[in-house]
């Protein structure tokens, strides 16, 4: 079995502004999620400064993924937190230059542990573009169960694409 890279999940710092700006304004990612507008550095700086990092207050937690050399390799989000049912949606982005090196898988492992043992969530779910075979493989490997196919769920500006809903009881 391939060994996963060593990563750390940490809170966002003001120094992460440029990475956040790059990710949030990467148009190729817009069709994978619910955002389709550019964000200014000002609004993102304001977000970093005012985020409490308390999932009960913000209804989300955004974590920075760092490798063993302390380089930011991506972001992990627990969003759409539902405090009554103790579930959240997991979102994950690895910067292009760090993709296909095991960082996404390592982040999933750590987010699962964090969600279960620190946040005491009952379940996580993800919505994945069906064209993203690498992501589908990772979530299947970590026992996320495929639910429904969400027909024409994601729009890339030209065409609609199906997405898969996966969930995992923790």
Automatic annotation (TrEMBL):
Q: Which domain of life is it from?
A: Bacteria
PROSITE patterns recorded? GNAT (PS51186)
Q: Report the CDD domains cross-referenced here.
A: NAT_SF
Domain N-acetyltransferase: start-end pairs = 7-170
Q: Which Pfam families match?
A: Acetyltransf_3
> What is the name of the protein in this document?
GNAT family N-acetyltransferase
State the organism of origin.
Answer: Xylanibacter brevis
Recite the lineage of the species. Bacteria, Pseudomonadati, Bacteroidota, Bacteroidia, Bacteroidales
């Amino acid at each position: 079995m391939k060994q996963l890279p060593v990563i750390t999940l940490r809170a966002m710092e003001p120094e992460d502004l440029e990475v956040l700006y790059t990710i949030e304004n990467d148009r190729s990612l817009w069709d994978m999620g619910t955002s389709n507008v550019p964000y200014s550095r000002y609004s993102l700086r304001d977000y970093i400064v005012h985020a409490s990092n308390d999932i009960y207050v913000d209804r989300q937690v955004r974590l920075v993924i760092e490798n063993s050399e302390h380089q930011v390799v991506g972001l992990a989000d627990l969003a759409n937190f539902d405090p009554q049912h103790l579930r959240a949606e997991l979102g994950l982005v690895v910067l292009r230059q760090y993709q296909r090196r095991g960082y996404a898988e390592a982040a999933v492992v750590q987010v699962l542990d964090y969600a279960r043992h620190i946040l005491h969530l009952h379940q996580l779910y993800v919505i994945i573009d069906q064209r993203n075979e690498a992501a589908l493989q990772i979530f299947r490997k970590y026992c996320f169960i495929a639910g429904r196919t969400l027909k024409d769920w994601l729009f890339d500006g030209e065409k609609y694409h199906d997405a898969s809903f996966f969930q995992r009881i923790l």
